[in-house]
Write a structure and sequence with these properties.
Number of helices of chain A: 10
CATH architecture of the largest domain in chain A: Up-down Bundle
Largest sheet of chain A: 4 strands, mixed
Order of helices and strands of chain A: EHEHEEHHHHHHHH
Shape of chain A: globular
Oligomer: homodimer
Structural class of chain A: alpha+beta
CATH topology of the largest domain in chain A: Glutathione S-transferase Yfyf (Class Pi), Chain A, domain 2
Helix content of chain A: 40-55%
Radius of gyration of chain A: 17 Å
Chain lengths: ~210, ~210
């Protein structure tokens, strides 16, 4: 198993958490997004979207972090990252997608770069009027989902799921951009519970081999 | 089963296709996004993100279109919307997420409105320098995924899957914004194959009870 990773990528961070929870240790290649290595022809052959993460196993190339985590969960069922019941699975997937479809894509590096290149927005305007705006709107929605029945010590019940693999990288990013988080006590409580576990803590950007200051 | 829908929503369009493929006809409520009905307190109790679609069944409230389609597929397995093998499922989910996580969220109504409100971008600038830019970048990535082994008459094999429920609404939107699509022959061929089927055609915005000119 070969894993294409970048320390700062939230999407790769999700997969790192899942790999740690499953006790899997693939060979890792690092794709430096700020050096634009994701646009190198050889990498685009693997991942035509020019994104990380990518997982290669048994001649198959897997892309998109949530699809990769579900694949890992199907191939390595213990510990499960999805609940045993259909409604629980739908809830976990919805929380994951509320982050992966509604917050993260709007605030990722290529969007922030484009806001600078196409519209001349300076870093402080991007942080204040774009990044923090969408974190506030998005995490409020996630907090609403977490306020419903089903949440336990983790996003769903008392063990980590796919939802927690998405929540933790999102909160990490929000803190990096100094987003105020006081209005999201359930999300922050789950985040702290997750980060107390080594599988989550070891997946954080600063502890990766390719980490930079 | 109660389905909260809006004719123009791509995310609701995905679920309408899945419902039609499964032969399911839930009771429908329409949430007018341009009239901001998704922010009404009663609707926010159901869907704290203030988004459509929402599906209510057996006292459970389901949100996020891909989670809803997977739930429908688990509860009503015929015809299947995911392949029987794990690598196939990972590929279908990746294509779906390449659209639902990388193209659609960046171009949806709330982002376009915010570009006008916060940065004063006029409609033509938004269409040209935002909408068409992200469609071009995103659909090129999807075309790359479709160029790999696995694609048949549909995105994966010769029957519709979760991937096709995402592809069709995305192409619809791209055409509505006059995005040039000549560079994506596989995506367009699959789109035409899908639209020749009544389950897809009947789900299109103009054929919904709440459709407007």
């Amino acid at each position: 198993m070969l894993f294409y990773d970048y320390f700062r990528s939230s999407a790769a961070f999700r997969v790192r958490i899942a790999l740690n929870l499953k006790g899997l240790t693939p060979e890792r290649h690092f794709v430096h997004l700020r050096h634009n290595e994701q646009r190198a022809p050889d990498y685009l052959k693997l991942n035509p979207q020019g994104l990380v993460p990518t997982l290669v196993e048994d001649g198959a190339t897997l892309t998109q972090s949530l699809a990769i985590v579900e694949y890992l969960d199907e191939m390595h069922p213990e510990p499960p990252l999805l609940p045993a019941d259909a409604k629980g699975r739908a809830r976990v997937r919805a929380i994951a997608q509320a982050i992966a479809c509604e917050i993260h894509p709007i605030n990722n590096l290529r969007i922030l770069n484009y806001l600078a290149d196409a519209f001349g927005l300076d870093p402080e305007t991007r942080a204040e009027k774009w990044y923090r705006h969408w974190v506030a709107e998005g995490v409020a929605g996630v907090e609403g989902l977490l306020a419903a029945a089903g949440t336990g010590r983790f996003c769903h019940g008392d063990a980590p799921t796919l939802a927690d693999t998405c929540l933790v990288p999102q909160i990490f990013n929000a803190q990096r951009f100094d987003c105020p988080m006081d209005a999201y006590p359930i999300a922050m409580r789950v985040f702290e519970t997750c980060m107390a576990r080594e599988e989550f803590a070891a997946a954080q950007p600063s502890r990766q081999p390719d980490a930079e200051a």
